[in-house]
Amino acid sequence: MQRRNRFVSLWLILVLFIVFPCHLRADGAAISCFVTNDATHVLVYARVTNCFTKDMEAAILAGVPTTFTFLVDLYQERRYWLDKRITGLTVKHTIKYDIVKKLFSVSSDGEKEPTLFQDYESAKRSMADINGLPLTPIKSLRRNEYYYVQIRRNSKKSACRSTWNMFFSSFPSGILKRLVPEGFFY
Hints:
Number of helices: 3
Number of strands: 9
Strand order of the largest sheet: 6-5-4-3-8-9
Helix content: 10-25%
Strand content: 35-45%
Order of helices and strands: HEEHEEEEHEEE
Largest sheet: 6 strands, antiparallel
Number of domains: 1
């Protein structure tokens, strides 16, 4: 009897997640993604919209460093089997506000020096964008195969113990499907 109750409870929770996935999204935030290539690599461009909450903005304007972590994965779709993960990258963007100088600095993993902004809107755009991230060499892909990119974003206040964890999807049933499925044939 207990085993049956557990099974029914788990089934009910799963059904609720499928029926009401929009509660897992953060205030209408979404990721838009574009995948292209240059002569040697697959490139990813992405932007998160509506990702700053009031609490997050207040913390940033108070001088608390805030980090967005983008998890970018490239998969090869395989019929009748699990999709194969080709590569995965983690990109971190950190925003800091200097209250004395009234400047916003946005740094990224690959940059030596942070980019400075005088206005908050430009700094927010820089935080929410991935521009031309080289994901994998083109020669590592096989011809006539379908690939897709999955992007997730996690944000964290650096100086506080509380953490904002928000994962965004561009379609309603995002918890069981790929996040930001930008696919392509090679």
